[in-house]
Amino acid sequence: METGTGTAHRPQIAKADGSAVRVLVVDDENSLTDLLKMALRYEGWEVRTAADGLGAVRVAREFRPDAIVLDIMLPDIDGLEVLQRVRADGTETPVLFLTAKDSLDDRIAGLTAGGDDYVTKPFSLEEVVARLRGLIRRSTLTLAQAKDPVLRVGDLSLDEDSYEVERDGATVELTATEFELLRFLMRNPRRVLSKAQILDRVWNYDFGGKESVVELYISYLRKKIDAGREPMIHTVRGAGYMLKAAG
After folding, report:
1. Rounded to an integer, what distance in angstroms lies between the CA atom of residue 230 and that of residue 247?
2. Helices 53-63 & 79-88 angle (0-180, nearest 10)
3. Starting at the edge strand that comes first in sequence, how are the strands of the sheet with 165-167 ordered?
4. What is the b/e burial string over 97-108, where b = at least 16 CB atoms within 10 angstroms of the residue's CB?
5. List-wise, which residues carry 4-aspartylphosphate (predicted)?
6. What is the pTM of this model?
7. How far apart (Å, rounded) are the C-alpha atoms in residues 217 and 89?
8. What is the DSSP string of the chain?
9. What is the CB neighbour count within 10 angstroms for residue 188?
10. Strand partners, 240
11. Which parts of the chain register pLDDT below 50?
């Protein structure tokens, strides 16, 4: 695992009431949890750890974390079972899965079980912190705007209840798959999303790893969202796609 940070430390984030963000780290490798604990505490966050699945469920109930870093492979029950038990308690705490398995099947299993993101081992501490910052920001936004089903990025809006999409006041007609793709992009503005991540989130099953389908649907979206306007959907060469407000 890489431990260098390589960039200047970013401003800390905290909850709306000013209290520290709480993160639960679950992994049976003590050296890894120690490193993660150090990195997350450097962010100003309060950190608890657990070395097995049953311990994780118990700590989650007591600690009520704002985010969970959860290894899929644990010595008793696996991370997917941990997540199911945590969700059964009625909590929607965002979960970042850690996995040593880099197959599409494993990633889909975690994401469809209710996880929010994943990183594969080996990973850099900086990547884990960055993913967690994004999850925490988005979950906080979701809670704050729970009564507002409309996602907005620049002059683009998407209503998750009515399935209506508008750009600069003009209605945009989308198919169901195009809508799901746009929703994923809009939930992650200014974040580069890989084709594998998009396959996992939008198609929700093993699509055979055919990343060309992502390129195809991105082209469909561009024709409907960006045609005749300043583009919002951008290709980041060798990395994936990003949506950001025009201008």
Report:
1. 8
2. 30
3. 150-153, 156-159, 165-167, 170-172
4. bbbeeeeeebbb
5. 71
6. 0.55
7. 37
8. -B----SPPPPP---TTSPPPEEEEE-S-HHHHHHHHHHHHHTT-EEEEESSHHHHHHHHHHH--SEEEEES--SSS-HHHHHHHHHHTT----EEEEES---HHHHHHHHHTT--EEEESS-BHHHHHHHHHHHHHHHHHHHHTTT--EEEETTEEEETTT--EEETTEEE---HHHHHHHHHHHHSTT--B-HHHHIIIII-S--TT-THHHHHHHHHHHHHHTTTS---EEEETTTEEEE----
9. 18
10. 236
11. 2-11, 141-147, 205-207
The tokens of 140 are what?
């906080």
Whole-number Å distance between alpha carbons of 246 and 204:
29
* DSSP secondary structure string for all residues of 46-85: EEEEESSHHHHHHHHHHH--SEEEEES--SSS-HHHHHHH
Tokens matching residue 201: 């989130």
Residue at token pair 């780290």:
25
The answer to whether 76 and 52 have CB atoms below 8 angstroms apart is: yes
The helix-helix angle for 125-144 and 30-42 (nearest 10°) equals 60
Distance, CA of 185 to chain centre: 11
Tell me the β-bridge partners of 99. 120
Predicted local distance difference test score (pLDDT) of residue 98? 87
Residue with tokens 């409309």: 150
CB 137 within 8 A of CB 14: no
Q: Locate 221 and state its tokens.
A: 């979206």
Q: Mind listing the pLDDT tens digit for each residue in 189-211?
A: 999 999 888 887 776 544 455 77
- CA–CA gap between residue 225 and residue 174 (Å, rounded): 10
Question: Which tokens is 148 given?
Answer: 């507002």
